[in-house]
Prior knowledge:
Elements: H1 17-27, E1 34-37, H2 44-52, E2 56-59, H3 64-74, H4 79-91, H5 113-116
Parallel strand pairs: 1-2
Amino acid sequence: MNELNHQLPSYPAMLMPLIVRNLLEQYGKGKDTVLLDPYVGAGTTLVEAQLYGAKQAIGIDLNPLAVLISKSKTTKYDLEKLNKQIRHFRDNTNQINYHVDIQDNEFFNFSIRDFWFKEKKCN
Length: 123
């Protein structure tokens, strides 16, 4: 099921949203639901818990990329502030250093990165 933002970005071994939705409907306690996802992955369970109206949904993972993806999918943003920041960014792009070396960034260097995410070869 490719609804909402479940497939963005693609993540290996993702849980199907419909399974989580059905489990919440069957075993959830409505607005009193508190949920823990100890292997949050791409955040499918957290997104579905928000849609369900759970009181609280907590996700943890050893993979820092999984944590980032889950946060990006479940953070509620103030669109007015976001649009203001986008305008500010556009107005100041001439001051940006576009050279970024991701190999030096500790966030992208975790032990199973190359196993989960293979380098794409262009033909």
